[in-house]
Amino acid sequence: MSKTILPNSTIGVFGSGQLGRMFAIEARKMGYRVHTFSPESDTPTGQVADIETCAGYDDLLEVRTFAQSVDVVTFEFENVPAATVEAAAEFVDVFPKGEILHTTQNRLREKTFLSSNGFPVTPFRHITSLEGLRTAVAELGTPCVLKTAGFGYDGKGQSKITSSDDIDAAFTALKGAEAVLEAFVAFEKEVSVVCARDQNGNFAHYGVIENHHSNHILDVSFAPALVSEAVYADAVEIARNISDTMGYVGTLCVEFFLSSDGKLVVNELAPRPHNSGHLTFDACVTSQFEQQLRAVCGLPLGSTEFYRPAAMANLLGDVWANGEPNWTAAATMPNVKLHLYGKVEPRAGRKMGHLTAVADSAADAARLVREARAALQPATESHTR
Ligand code: AMP
Hints:
The protein is of the alpha+beta class and about 375 residues long. Helix content is about 30%, strand content about 25%. The chain has three domains: about 10-95, Rossmann fold, CATH 3.40.50.20; about 125-185, ATP-grasp fold, A domain (Dna Ligase, domain 1, 2-Layer Sandwich); about 190-385, 2-Layer Sandwich (D-amino Acid Aminotransferase, Chain A, domain 1). Helix 1 (about 20-30) packs across helix 10 (about 290-295) and helix 3 (about 80-90) packs antiparallel against helix 4. The protein is globular. The relative contact order is 0.11. It binds adenosine monophosphate. Adenosine monophosphate binds near residues 152 and 185.
């Protein structure tokens, strides 16, 4: 039985980035209070939360004080240490559960969970030594991808091994970290399913979203993805089964590689709202952030219906390379919406905000959102296409 956390209650959020910010916006719209906890201050989440605690995740005294001051805890950053979540869970429910966080914050544990439950993943090997890496490369063949097991995102901590000559450098780059070697997937496209599961096991999803990356960072997403009905059904079914198997509560993103013969393999799981689901904020009855809120508060999930096909383009710090972007240019496009995360320093590769667009088709929405981004900063746009 789920416990209902009603409006006016306080939701605790571990992490303080843009995902927490958009979660907090939705929570405040519905009359909840938000308390964010992270090692930083004046953060994207803190700027819209009611309370911002600035303390280390290893400061368990502060974690316990935080947990006692909120009605339920969720997170927007999955690398919160297990001990932090356990300390919070002494006082209050944490959703998704700590075990799920533990599984998904490490590629080896995540891939082992997926493959041992029969979900499709690319062949992989656990790497702890140079000798082990040589054997694994021989087994999986080249090209293959070496990834650190923990704390990897947006291609960080990854190297592609195209021949045995790359092995030594790839191993050295690990700097002693535990790693996973993955067979390379010659995918046709990358897609994701953003979905949510409530405390009673009800499931909702936003269909299949198509994702285009640039330099390993998500660049443009659009929905509905241009995939066959069979692929759509398969992707949603896999996401549903993963969330059921985990006993998941909250918003989950399953990222897939899709090969030209229609085969899906799971690349990774994000146990939280995901960048590819940002378009749900403007295009759907219920956004991925509101679903997270509903799930952790024990409320029924909302409708995931799309008002119109939609697209999202990330705004990285690079867009600021020639000075302040021309916001008026984007604002003159009536079906384009601007989201900025309140970050002051526009470093290259840093996610500063995004644009969304709606149109009659996903392809048109994608075109429009790219045009809008180009209008912000024509001189720097071309390289991100
Ligand atoms: P990840 O951080 O694991 O999501 O990887 C970032 C990006 O690198 C993915 O979105 C893919 O574009 C690419 N990539 C990662 N793993 C593989 C793989 N095994 N085969 C092919 N491309 C990959």
